[in-house]
Structure to design on (765 residues):
């Protein structure tokens, strides 16, 4: 089971850097689950939440708060040590004996482990009042803590006998000799024997014969706790896993075999950390679907691309098809956005015009003159919700972060390879090739009467791009192809232009320009189609920049686009193949489905500006495109365009780290 | 995948009532007095329930979480209103 990084030890940045530093036991737990997971989380510093990690965090918050604080100062003989948020803080028994301080460990919190010389059996199952219901299917909802419904006399008896067992929660201990630091959810001490108890969500593993067992990662974690205890002078032979959902205890004896596994795991963790080489993904493992990092790791996709040429089994669709949260765009001028609890409140002239739940959004985008309160900014950044800034007309300024990826290794690789001419050219060729192919596909699909010469030319230019000798010649090829493509662009507009400029003599002819398109122009765009194209590219740049940052890449250092201050060169690189598929396609559908109409535009001198309403409609059209599902030609599963951007960016990162040999530029079939 | 949940509560104390109302506003639409409709992922549901559990008095209050199925295949007639109209919105983004 993957554990969240919820304790200070594992997010302490210093812990990850020096190989001599103590390894948190959790890391080793993860290494046993999957070495790649360990690498992604603790070497690259990537993290994603899953249902398991969230559940774990909630559970541990309660476990840790069980005695009302992280560092219980008094030993308590607990009546019931099942953590419960609404329980009265457990009353400490009238001090059985004084706790003996053990100054030996610097990480030991105020000594709570010792102090009782009662000879109770360590880890005796009967000390757990809930043990009377080993198979109880009573409560699968771990958010409520009902008291056990039946308590057998036997247990009550047992409880009186063992009342002087000492329980200590959230004890952090380290071992210099192992180089490991471990946090014990609960330590049960009786006499000199200490038994660590680890709280788990969910259910224990069940063997064929019905007995309960533990998985290796959990066993190793217990072994580490036992070893750390021993290193601190306690006697400890076994540990206990307590499963919150089923309220079952599983004893984990620490034998030689387990010790060997544990020692080799510690060594492997150090090796992986020093190697700088990501371990390969597991092969068709049942662990991957439950792994919180599956969307970052892309196990099947990586394997497929790494073993290109060989017959490959199907790629299981392990990534979720789309992000469940949605972007928010604010474009009403003069609006003020504040926060009330978990709600964003958009106010115009002091009146709330809309409330949006923070839990529902993955981006905040501001067009022009809009105020965001500091609390909102802080909350957004804290939740990794980026804030995008645009001018009122839609010119993209940039994004403020909160996408705190610590993955410096891939960034270092990016900087190294950006200086490698051959590498840059290689990536650039693939990008331009993909872009031209996608332009051609768009023409074939949407043009009323696709021109055979244009299609043939585009195919030729695409192939020529693959053989380009330099970035400069590539730019030339891209330019010629664009001219051909935009020359035919108007043929994809299927709405009759309605009021055409100077047409039927309408006075409005000047105010409402028609959807005509001659060529691409910008700054300022001189017709509605160009105005929409500019806005669409702005939005797409923002989304590519967000994807690059999320993956840990520097959005400003590109391979094809040259470095220029303020220019998000890598985002522009990533965007090339997607221009036709997302941006231009949105413009076409906005016009063809009449989501945007000529009266959504205002002529201002030589330039054309979108009205507020027009922009709102267009934003909806853009997001509809981003949310629509598309089949990935290599992996044969369907994901939204937004998810696709992320996957493609992650694959680029894999290319940079050398795990795969070719960057597969996305092309529609 | 999001699912639709109807969450209702019966809370005995005015302070907790306010707290639970505020908490649920962060997760769903307030339909009626102590009734919310929430579209939640599994992770959201877990967080939402944990938040509620922290507020509710387990001996006196009660909240019910009623699973109305996947949000994606939501039927038009899932919720029917008599009297004032009811409408569920589904846009790919928020535009204000
Ligand atoms: S997805 Fe699979 S291979 Fe990748 S880190 Fe998780 S368990 Fe390991």
């Amino acid at each position: 089971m993957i554990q969240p990084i919820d304790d200070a030890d594992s997010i302490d940045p210093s812990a990850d850097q020096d190989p001599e530093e103590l390894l948190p036991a959790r890391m080793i737990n993860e290494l046993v689950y999957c070495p790649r997971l360990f690498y992604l989380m603790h070497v690259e510093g990537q993290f994603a939440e899953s249902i398991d990690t969230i559940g774990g965090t909630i559970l541990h918050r309660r476990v840790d708060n069980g005695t009302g604080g992280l560092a219980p100062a008094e030993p308590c003989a607990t009546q019931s040590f099942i953590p419960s948020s609404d329980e009265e803080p457990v009353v400490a028994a009238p001090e059985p004996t004084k706790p003996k301080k053990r100054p030996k460990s610097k990480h030991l919190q105020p000594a709570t482990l010792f102090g009782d010389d009662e000879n109770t059996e360590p880890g005796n199952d009967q000390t757990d009042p809930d043990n009377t219901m080993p198979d109880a299917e009573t409560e699968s909802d771990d958010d409520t803590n009902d008291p056990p419904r039946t308590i057998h006399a036997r247990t009550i008896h047992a409880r009186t006998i063992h009342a002087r067992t000492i329980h200590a929660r959230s004890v952090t201990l380290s071992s210099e000799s192992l180089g490991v630091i471990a946090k014990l959810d609960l330590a049960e001490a009786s006499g000199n024997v200490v038994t660590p108890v680890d709280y788990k969500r969910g259910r224990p593993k069940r063997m064929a014969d019905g007995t309960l067992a533990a998985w290796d990662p959990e066993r190793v974690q217990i072994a580490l706790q036992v070893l750390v205890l021993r290193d601190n002078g306690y006697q400890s032979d076994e540990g206990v896993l307590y499963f919150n959902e089923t309220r079952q205890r599983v004893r984990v004896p620490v034998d030689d075999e387990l010790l060997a596994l544990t020692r080799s795991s510690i060594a492997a963790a150090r090796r992986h950390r020093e190697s700088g080489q990501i371990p390969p993904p597991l092969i068709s493992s049942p662990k991957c679907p439950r792994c919180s990092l599956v969307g970052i790791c892309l196990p099947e996709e990586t394997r497929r691309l790494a073993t290109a040429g060989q017959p490959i089994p199907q790629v299981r669709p392990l990534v979720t098809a789309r992000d469940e949260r949605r972007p928010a765009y604010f474009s009403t001028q003069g609006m003020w956005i504040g926060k009330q609890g978990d709600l964003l409140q958009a106010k115009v002239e002091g009146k709330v015009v809309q409330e949006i739940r923070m839990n529902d959004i993955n981006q905040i985008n501001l067009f022009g003159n809009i105020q965001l309160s500091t609390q909102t900014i802080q909350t957004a950044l804290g939740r990794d919700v980026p804030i995008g800034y645009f001018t009122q007309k839609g010119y993209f300024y940039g994004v403020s972060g909160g996408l705190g990826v610590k993955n410096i290794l891939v960034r270092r690789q990016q900087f190294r390879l950006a200086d490698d001419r051959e590498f840059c050219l290689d990536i650039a060729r693939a990008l331009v090739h993909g872009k031209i192919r996608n332009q051609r596909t768009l023409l074939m699909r949407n043009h009323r009467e696709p021109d055979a010469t244009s299609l043939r030319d585009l195919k030729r230019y695409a192939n020529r791009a693959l053989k380009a000798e330099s970035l400069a010649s590539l730019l030339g090829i891209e330019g010629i192809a664009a001219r051909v493509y935009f020359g035919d662009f108007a043929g994809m507009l299927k709405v009759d232009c309605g009021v055409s400029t100077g047409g039927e003599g309408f006075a409005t002819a000047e105010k409402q320009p028609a959807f005509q398109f001659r060529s691409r122009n910008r700054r300022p765009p001189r017709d509605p189609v160009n105005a929409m194209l500019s806005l669409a590219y702005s939005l797409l740049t923002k989304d590519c920049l967000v994807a690059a940052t999320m993956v840990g890449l520097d959005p400003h250092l590109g391979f094809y686009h040259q470095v220029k201050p303020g220019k998000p060169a890598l985002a522009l690189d990533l965007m090339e193949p997607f221009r036709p598929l997302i941006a231009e396609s949105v413009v076409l559908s906005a016009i063809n489905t009449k989501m945007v109409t000529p009266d959504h535009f205002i002529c201002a001198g030589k330039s054309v500006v979108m009205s507020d309403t027009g922009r709102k409609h267009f934003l909806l059209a853009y997001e509809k495109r981003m949310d629509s599902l598309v089949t990935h030609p290599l992996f044969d599963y369907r994901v939204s365009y937004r998810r696709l951007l992320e996957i493609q960016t992650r694959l680029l990162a894999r290319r940079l780290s050398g795990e795969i040999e070719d960057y597969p530029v996305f092309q529609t079939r | 995948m999001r699912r639709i949940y109807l969450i209702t509560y019966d809370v005995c104390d005015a302070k907790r009532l306010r707290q639970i109302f505020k908490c649920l506003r962060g997760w769903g639409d307030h339909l009626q007095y102590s009734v919310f409709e929430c579209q939640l992922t599994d992770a959201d549901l877990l967080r939402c329930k944990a938040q509620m559990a922290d507020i509710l008095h387990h001996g006196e209050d009660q909240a019910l979480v009623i699973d109305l199925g996947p949000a994606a295949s939501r039927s038009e007639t899932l919720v029917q209103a008599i009297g004032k109209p009811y409408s569920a919105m589904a846009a790919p983004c928020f535009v204000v």
Notes: Residues 379 and 535 of chain A are 28 Å apart (CA to CA).
